[in-house]
Design goal:
Blueprint: E1 8-14, H1 23-33, E2 34-46, H2 49-52, H3 55-68, H4 76-80, H5 86-95, E3 99-106, H6 109-124, H7 132-145, E4 157-163
Parallel strand pairs: 1-2
Antiparallel strand pairs: 2-4, 3-4
Length: about 170
Amino acid sequence: MPFEDNFFDVVLISAAFHHLPNMHMALGEMKRVVKSRGLVILGVEPNAWPYFTVYWLLKPVKKLIRKTNKKFFHSIADDSTHGFTKGQLVKMFSKAELEIVKIERAKYFSEFYDSGISFLNKAFKLKLEPKEKTSFFLARLDSYLSKVPLLNLFSWHWSVIATKNVKD
């Protein structure tokens, strides 16, 4: 990154980390440009479990949508990622020598809503927008669901907050 060492208080990447060609190098660069005690935040990165359970069932639908909607941009990373387990994220941050302050599961019911709107837009060439009140309600519901044992294991995404140690 074209920034000086220890330049930022916070480095944030949201819903895009899995798109980077070298995630380990990217974390190293994030660490380099963040100040001591600064934060490196990954927001809304995919969880691994849907890739091995639900998504394989949706492949025929995805192919059909892409075949009929040639103008729509398709993310190579979304096709090639397998998401992250908590262990993989912990290991990646540890290897980058970033201390995890908080790692949490994100998006339960809100993901169904967001993905449902996206699906309808792609499948039927619509231009639906999420409703703010519905999104807010589902985010609140997600925060409660995250506290329910067993059910809380089935989030669709992860968010990670890490810090750069003072010695660095």
